[in-house]
């Protein structure tokens, strides 16, 4: 009897554990989040001096695997350089974008200290792990300062 009860409890735990695994998000969920991020960027960069341009607004399904699709958002924005050394300008632009991505948009950022003080541009990488959305921002020494590319993973509709 103890063996049967132990097996029943073990089987129940296995079934419960398998039910607790996270499933892949839907394309609809990831798209809604990416479109929300686009809207928040538009709000954050509404100052005309930032010259925000949404080049691709996550509004088209892009085939990427058998019966799967992704959405992509691409944008550029500018951060006017004042009379300061280029390394300082890049540092301020990088920090500003990192803060926006992490605090306002909820991305978990990867930090790469090897880029500190470089004057040929910097990359920022972030992820929304629950939906698999990845963002890459190139912080350029020339205009436009920020070049954003965010994409959902390949997902079923």
Could you list some keywords that capture this structure?
35% helix, alpha+beta, single chain, disordered N terminus, 157 residues
The low-confidence runs, each spanning 5 or more residues with pLDDT under 50, are: 3-21
**Category by helix and strand content:** alpha+beta
Mass-distribution shape: elongated
β-sheet strand percentage: 25-35%
Mean pLDDT: 86
**Using DSSP, what is the number of strands?**
8
Count of helix runs: 3
Rounded radius of gyration (Å): 21 Å
Strand order of the largest sheet: 1-4-8-7-6-5
* N- to C-terminal distance: 48 Å
Q: Helix proportion of residues, in percent?
A: 25-40%
Write the layout of secondary structure elements.
Blueprint: H1 2-19, H2 27-44, E1 53-57, E2 62-65, E3 68-70, E4 72-77, H3 86-104, E5 108-110, E6 122-128, E7 133-139, E8 146-151
Antiparallel strand pairs: 1-4, 2-3, 4-8, 5-6, 6-7, 7-8
């Amino acid at each position: 009897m103890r063996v049967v009860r132990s097996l029943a409890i073990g089987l129940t735990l296995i079934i419960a554990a398998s039910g607790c695994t996270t499933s892949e998000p839907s394309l609809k969920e990831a798209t809604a989040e990416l479109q929300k991020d686009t809207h928040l960027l538009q709000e954050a960069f509404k100052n005309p001096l930032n010259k925000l341009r949404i080049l691709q607004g996550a509004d088209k399904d892009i085939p990427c695997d058998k019966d799967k699709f992704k959405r992509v958002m691409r944008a550029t924005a500018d951060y006017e350089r004042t009379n300061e050394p280029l390394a300082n300008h890049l540092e301020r632009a990088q920090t500003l974008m990192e803060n926006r991505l992490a605090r306002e948009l909820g991305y978990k950022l990867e930090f790469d200290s090897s880029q500190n003080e470089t004057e040929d541009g910097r990359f920022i990488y972030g992820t929304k792990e629950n939906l698999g959305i990845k963002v890459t921002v190139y912080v350029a020494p020339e205009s436009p300062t920020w070049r954003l590319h965010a994409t959902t993973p390949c997902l079923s509709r």
